[in-house]
Amino acid sequence: MKAVVLYEAGSPEHLCLEEREMPSPEENQVLIKVKAFGLNRSEIMTRKGLSPDVHFPRVLGIECVGEIIEDPSGEFKKGQKVAAFMGGMGRDFDGSYAEYAVLPKSIISTFESNLPWEILGALPEMFQTVFGSLHLALKIKKEETLLIRGGTSSIGLLAAQLAKSEGVKVVSTTRNINKKELLLENGVDLVVIDDGNISQQIEDQQIKIDKVLELVGNFYIEGLFGNNLS
To answer: Is the pLDDT of residue 230 over 50?
Structure first.
């Protein structure tokens, strides 16, 4: 099989495409055929050498979608569609930058979808990030008002959809007035054009913000929202 292997940290040229033997799953592992995977900033950091716990050589890739090829336990059927992400993938053990991957069953989730693989490949880590942000960190509740800063990012757009499905009012920001309709069509209740003075705009419109999902940078939170955060 083909795999992209990183033997030492450095520039993108350090990623080596090579032929490797097909791996075999052991107990509590499955072999999957990788159909698509997302590219994550954490992988860039690892490639640059900013992940000290990652030892080389390593096949990077912290998420993927694909099909089951072999499961020694018989729990998963051959050809079953699955997604995998995190849990040490691409860091503690080889990840998704390959045609096939042996992964622990604990990070495998089955799904049914007719979406093309290239779209599915971008979803696992994005959904995990948004779910964790909204429910585990912010603990959003029905009828609260959530402000999403950086709303036109992929994370921002998905967060708006999931928050709306929970009965949350969504206020979203963008610095580009031409993207206002995109946000409204995505379910956002109110769009704030980020001119560097979000706090004043929120105060002028008498909006009470309960929670903030900051996607631009934590450095900017203090001072931008004033006393409008409960």
So the answer is: no
